[in-house]
Design brief:
The complex is a heterodimer.
Chain A (H helix, E strand, L loop, with lengths): L3 E3 L3 E6 L2 E6 L5 E4 L1 H10 L6 H11 L9 H14 L2 E3 L5
Antiparallel strand pairs in A: 1-5, 2-3, 3-4
Helix pairs in contact in A: 1-2
Chain B lengths: L1 H6 L4 E4 L10 H10 L3 E6 L6 H9 L3 E5 L5 H5 L8 H13 L3 E8 L7 H11 L3 E6 L5 H7 L6 H10 L2 H4 L3 E3 L8 H7 L11 E2 L4 E3 L13 E2 L5 H7 L1 H9 L6 H4 L4 H4 L4 H8 L7 H8 L12
Parallel strand pairs in B: 1-2, 2-3, 3-4, 4-5, 5-6
Antiparallel strand pairs in B: 7-8, 8-9
Helix pairs in contact in B: 2-3
The chains are: A alpha+beta, B alpha/beta.
The structure holds iron/sulfur cluster (2 copies).
The site of one iron/sulfur cluster has 9 residues of chain B, from helix 15.
Chain lengths: 93, 305
Amino acid sequence: MERFIFKKNVVFRKEDDGALLYDHDTGEILPLNESAADWCELLFANSFDMKAAEFEMRSRYEVDKGEDISGDMDEIIAVLKEKGYIVLAGKDS
Amino acid sequence: MFLGVKAGGVNSVKFGGGEPLVLPYAADLIEFFAKEKFDLFLETNGTLVTPRLAELVGKAGGRASVSLDGPDEETHSLLRISKNSFEQAKRGICLLVERGIYTQVIFSIHKGNVARFVQTVALARELGASSLKVNFIQRMGRAEEMDENGSLLDVREFLDFFGRLDTDVLGDFVFFDIPIAFKKIKRVTKEMNYTCNICSVVGVLSNGDVSICGIGNLKDDLVLGNIRSKPLMEIWQAHPLFQDLYRDIPANLGGICSNCMFKRQCLGCCVVNTYNVTGRFNAGYPFCEEAHRLGLFPRQRLVEV
Ligand code: SF4
Ligand code: SF4
């Protein structure tokens, strides 16, 4: 399975109502809402265990069993990948 | 002149002052902006808005901001030279709103009206304004005098006021003229692009003087030419001060701005105010410098904490 981490020089700052991602190289900044911030913290600032992250998010946000939240996770990964905030582990430059 | 800059790629005009509507040719100019399809933003105290002018601004698809410093005559007039302008300002707002024009009320906050803020917000809503902006009064021009009288809020007082208000309750109606580093994430998301975009702005004063924005009337050394003697585009493209500005903002912003996550988006907030205080455009923005000195700048917004 592919594993993503924050690109070198990306600063992740968690705050009460979300988080900011700041890319030192480009000066770009990306504000994240609360749940996106949680996803990021659980995935990229940790060991990128998607199952564990999903489990944690379900309990934090009291998500019904039948509700699929993996789409949210995929979307966040896709956006951050496209904007260059995350890279495949082992390929950081 | 306007056709010249339009050919050069300029497509929006902020028509401000002083009070732009005192100009005898104000209506003709607005009509011209409408005809030439410039995006128009009118900054006025509202007292001289007439049904015809409002009509023209509406035709130009323009937006407007009108100063209203309190919910009654007494509060509104406290720091104004002309008294009895409250009813006229209200009427001006109504005329603009009636024509469907996006109309923002500007509440310039000071010690004499801070306690009447909530009532002013209520009045602005009642008048049908689209939003209300709380303006921190910079120590420039006439405001320097007010500062000497102790009428203005200082950075600590303004931040204290901002911190005490529940901006969520005020909702999208109220904006704060405060550097973006102080805003909550939800606001950052919405307001990140609300900068003055100084690197693509040029100011022309009513006497033809050219400056980096409408501020040349406050500082003689910021008058960079006059359109009566040279085409605007020529002054804009060639004057070394513009060149310095575009080279330094945001890349060489100094002081607190150099270590701020938002420097690329914020562009140092108001470089003219910075120039006024420090003599340089690219020094740290005085408001943020002062907040930092007081330990009130949000550390989590600094690149290197
Ligand atoms: S420190 Fe500078 S760049 Fe940051 S918010 Fe303040 S003015 Fe803007
Ligand atoms: S530099 Fe300051 S005064 Fe000039 S346009 Fe920007 S915010 Fe306004």
